[in-house]
């Protein structure tokens, strides 16, 4: 019988993982992350510890090693099946072995196996990866250390199987986390914000271009750790050239220099002022059971479904008159508000909003594939480009199937995605946006939702950029091999990254130039970036690894099932660069003194934080004082669906800005009514004193209030204000006639 003391899982099994140390080094918009996991076997038998955990979807895992006592073993990258066989052989012969592999279904899930850890023995696992930081709507750079791994719903009949996850409620995670970050940039670091408590920012030089920060004492590893980094005069076009590895063969990816280009397209103002007034806007809302969970670990405030409803409200209110729209929702099944897309009007908007307000997370499992197929099968409306908006917490096990479907239909559908709540699959959310030519945003409990919604809304209303091409002008003797896929879409001021391998040498000029040409609303445009071919110092092999990761991901997501030739190329690239892939794994074997570890091997699954747990329930309705909550137990007879216990707190009233937005009509005006007076903090009598027509006066008052009290949030409401001003101009025109 196991002695139940020390760190235990929810099933009272000892946990060999004792703590995690994370050190992050951010250079401009690239982060290098080093995680050290400390294992200790307090049982009287040898252990195999298995830890399934989340990773950023675009991370390039480039180092994996283990230290046992004074012995350090560095892992190597091998073809996945070969690595698994070597791991199993090592355990069978009583040797210590360590295996790190990426999920074949989703690149944001990894599995770490620590095999044959003897009694009273400890081991430290060192894992290193590099990743790009996403630009946010307020120009901050977002770094996320995923902690939460929610169970992924696996639809019946889908390809492959999802990783087997052992999870506990986030508040019961039985191991600690220490986290520190060092930030450096050519430009001053203005501030660093987080969803977690931080110690004060420490500047490391007088120019304030270097700074450090760490989590405050007492942090529990019960949520994703997010950092938002703000630089002064951020996000200028730039190029970084990194020298090749001296020991690598010239002409190979690792032997040649690699350049990373950061492009921020600037479109002509005359074109950008003509935002599209047409289009078909299709919204797909996740109503699976997991959407009933709180947005963050505080378990207070909004649920995911409530946040998704508010996000949908903002988008619906800003649609242009004359466009078409429809709303689908899905769980184990799917449904739509209208049989087909309808023209946007006051009546259709009101009908849709009434339906949206009644939507709850009561549709079972997360089967997103079928509603997507239904949407893609519908004929497009002539002269109305179709835009698809997906709202989901991303808890699916068939991620690659979904992304491939979006990719196949990208020519006729532009896809934007919102990841709702902590633990949303970054692979799914970013994958569908990337392959669908759109943009992705993550909304968690600590975020202001409106800026992110407005940014995607601006991108969606921007005329589509077409005929995108990239040309290189390099000195004689230097050739270029692109590592990135061709650019599929461009958005005003939004970063686009390009990686390329530079081969050869130039005896003369040492500068290069890249030109991006495109057409926007039938207007030809181009942006250029001149850069030095001289390698930047002290970057190590970060750019090479990111470039290798980019090329590997591109090959892995080619149309259909990757062929044998593609798999071979991916394995070759992965082994050569030391970067993980879906077809390779890191393997390390500690042969030590050659003595076999004695005794039967006991498997222990290390739990991962989860925001919700599946529960089998019975039909019951409990009425509790409304000041606390309304609880409803929901039962589903289908074992494959999600079973949830809903205990949703009474939702707080909407903030004034959201309340005001909810009252705007489809045409852009406001009505002079008591609800408007309440939103503006006035009485109905105070609003009715002046003499202009009531609807005109109500709209003017709403605009005055926005400019007088919400200027700090102008980017959140400026599209609504433009819509209102256009309506006012139209009223003046009708009066003149």
Structural domain tally: 4
CATH H-level homologous superfamily name of the largest domain: tricorn interacting facor f3 domain
Overall pLDDT metric: 81
CATH topology description of the largest domain: Immunoglobulin-like
- Straight-line distance between termini: 91 Å
Helix content: 10-25%
> Mind describing the biggest β-sheet?
8 strands, mixed
Question: Which strand order do you get reading across the main beta sheet?
Answer: 5-4-9-2-1-13-16-15
Total strands: the figure is: 37
Oligomer state of the chains in this structure: single chain
Q: Count of helices?
A: 15
CATH class of the largest domain: Mainly Beta
Shape: globular
The CATH architecture of the largest domain can be given as Sandwich
Binned strand content: 25-35%
Which class best fits the helix and strand makeup?
A: alpha+beta
Which stretches are poorly predicted, pLDDT < 50 over at least 5 residues? 1-10, 151-155, 158-162, 611-650
User: What integer value in Å does the Rg equal?
Assistant: 27 Å
Domain VWFA: 280-465
InterPro entries: VIT, VWF_A, vWFA_dom_sf
Protein name: von Willebrand factor A domain containing 5A
Organism: Myripristis murdjan
Set down the secondary structure blueprint.
Blueprint: E1 17-27, E2 30-40, E3 47-54, E4 60-68, E5 71-74, E6 76-79, H1 80-92, E7 96-102, E8 109-117, E9 122-132, E10 134-135, E11 141-145, E12 167-169, E13 176-184, E14 189-194, E15 202-203, E16 210-214, E17 225-231, E18 238-242, E19 258-263, H2 269-272, E20 280-286, H3 304-317, E21 324-330, E22 334-336, E23 342-343, H4 346-357, H5 369-377, E24 386-392, H6 399-408, E25 413-420, H7 426-435, E26 440-443, H8 449-461, E27 465-473, E28 479-482, E29 496-503, E30 511-520, E31 523-532, H9 542-556, H10 564-577, E32 584-590, E33 602-606, E34 608-610, E35 620-622, E36 629-633, E37 645-649, H11 656-663, H12 674-680, H13 684-687, H14 694-709, H15 714-736
Parallel strand pairs: 1-13, 3-33, 12-34, 20-21, 20-24, 24-25, 25-26
Antiparallel strand pairs: 1-2, 2-9, 3-8, 4-5, 4-9, 6-32, 7-8, 7-32, 10-11, 11-17, 13-16, 14-17, 15-16, 18-19, 19-29, 21-22, 21-23, 27-30, 28-29, 30-31, 35-36, 36-37
């Amino acid at each position: 019988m196991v002695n139940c003391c020390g760190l235990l899982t929810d099933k009272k099994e000892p946990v060999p993982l004792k703590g995690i140390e994370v050190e992050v080094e951010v250079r401009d918009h690239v982060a290098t992350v080093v995680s050290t996991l400390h294992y200790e076997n307090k049982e009287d038998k040898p252990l195999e510890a298995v830890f399934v955990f989340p990773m950023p979807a675009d991370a390039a895992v480039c180092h994996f090693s283990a230290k046992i006592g004074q012995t350090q073993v560095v892992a190597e990258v091998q073809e996945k099946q070969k690595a698994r066989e070597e791991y199993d052989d090592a355990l069978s012969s009583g040797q210590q072995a360590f295996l790190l592999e990426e999920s074949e279904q989703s690149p944001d899930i990894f599995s770490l196996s620590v095999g044959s850890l003897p009694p009273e023995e400890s081991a430290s696992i060192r894992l290193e990866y590099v990743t790009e930081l996403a630009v946010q709507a307020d120009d901050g750079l977002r770094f996320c250390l995923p902690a939460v791994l929610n169970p992924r719903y696996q639809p019946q009949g889908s390809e492959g199987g999802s990783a087997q996850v052992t999870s506990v409620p986030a508040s019961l995670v039985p191991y600690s986390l220490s986290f520190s970050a060092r930030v450096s940039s050519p430009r001053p670091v203005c501030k660093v914000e987080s969803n977690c408590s931080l110690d004060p920012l420490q500047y490391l030089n007088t120019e304030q271009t270097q700074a450090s920060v760490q989590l405050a004492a007492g942090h529990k590893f019960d949520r994703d750790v997010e950092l938002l980094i703000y630089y002064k005069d951020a996000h200028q076009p730039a190029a970084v050239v990194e020298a090749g590895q001296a020991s690598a063969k010239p002409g190979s990816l690792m032997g040649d220099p690699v350049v990373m280009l950061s492009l921020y397209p600037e479109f002509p103002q005359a074109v950008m002022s003509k935002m599209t007034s047409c289009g078909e806007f299709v919204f797909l809302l996740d109503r699976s059971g997991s959407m009933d969970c709180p947005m963050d670990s505080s378990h207070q405030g909004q649920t995911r479904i409530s946040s998704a409803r508010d996000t949908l409200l903002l988008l619906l209110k800003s649609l242009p008159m004359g466009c078409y729209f429809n709303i689908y929702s899905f769980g184990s099944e799917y449904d739509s508000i209208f049989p087909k897309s309808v023209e946007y009007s006051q009546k259709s908007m009101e009908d849709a909003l009434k339906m949206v307000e009644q939507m709850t997370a009561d549709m079972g499992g997360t089967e997103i594939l079928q509603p997507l197929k239904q949407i893609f099968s519908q004929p497009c409306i002539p002269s109305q480009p179709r835009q698809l908006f997906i709202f989901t917490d991303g808890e699916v096990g068939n991620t690659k199937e979904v992304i491939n479907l979006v990719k196949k239909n990208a020519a006729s559908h532009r896809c934007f995605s919102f990841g709702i709540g902590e633990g949303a699959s970054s692979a799914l959310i970013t994958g569908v946006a990337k392959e669908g030519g759109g943009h992705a945003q993550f909304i968690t409990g600590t975020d202001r939702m409106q800026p992110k919604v407005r940014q995607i809304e601006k991108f969606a209303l921007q005329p589509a950029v077409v005929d995108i091409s990239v040309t290189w002008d390099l000195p004689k003797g230097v050739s270029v091999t692109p590592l990135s896929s061709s650019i599929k879409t461009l958005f005003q001021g939004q970063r686009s990254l390009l990686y390329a391998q530079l081969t050869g040498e130039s005896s003369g000029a040492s500068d290069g130039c890249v030109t991006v040409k495109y057409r926007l609303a039938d207007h030809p445009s181009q942006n250029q970036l001149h850069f030095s071919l001289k390698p930047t110092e002290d970057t190590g092999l970060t750019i090479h690894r990111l470039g290798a990761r980019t090329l590997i991901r591109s090959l892995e997501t080619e149309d259909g099932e990757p062929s044998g030739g593609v798999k071979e190329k991916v394995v070759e690239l992965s082994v050569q660069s030391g970067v993980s892939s879906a077809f390779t794994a890191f393997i390390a074997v500690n042969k030590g003194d050659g003595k076999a570890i004695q005794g039967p091997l006991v498997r222990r699954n290390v739990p991962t934080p989860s925001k919700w747990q599946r529960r089998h329930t019975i039909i019951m309705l409990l009425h509790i004082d409304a000041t606390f909550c309304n609880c409803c137990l929901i039962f589903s007879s289908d074992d494959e669906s999600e079973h949830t216990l809903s205990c949703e707190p009474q939702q707080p009233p909407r903030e004034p800005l959201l309340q005001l937005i909810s009252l705007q009509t489809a045409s852009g005006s406001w009505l002079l009514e008591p609800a408007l007076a309440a939103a503006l903090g006035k009485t109905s009598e105070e609003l009715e004193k002046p003499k202009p027509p009531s609807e005109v006066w109500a709209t003017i008052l709403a605009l005055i209030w926005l400019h007088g009290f919400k200027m700090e949030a102008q980017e959140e409401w400026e599209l609504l204000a433009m819509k209102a001003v256009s309506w006012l101009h139209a009223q003046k025109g009708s009066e003149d006639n």
